[in-house]
Task: structure prediction
Amino acid sequence: MCLVFVCDQDERVIGRYAAPGACPYCGGAVQVVDVENQWSFCFVPLYNKSKRRHLCSTCGRRLIVKS
Result:
């Protein structure tokens, strides 16, 4: 008997935008990336969430914005 569970997380980039400021590590430009996450179990979507991330365009680090 073979039992297979197919769990998957898809991450799709919706858009990229330039943001003001500079990376504190390398001084590169900062980009805002809108990302949509989708979790599915046996090809049935269970969870959708959109997030906004800040990334450095030069070194690729994920930056944390403090308000």
In short: Strands lie at 7-22, 29-41, 44-56, 62-63. Residues 7-60 form one domain. Residues 2 and 36 are 33 Å apart (CA to CA).
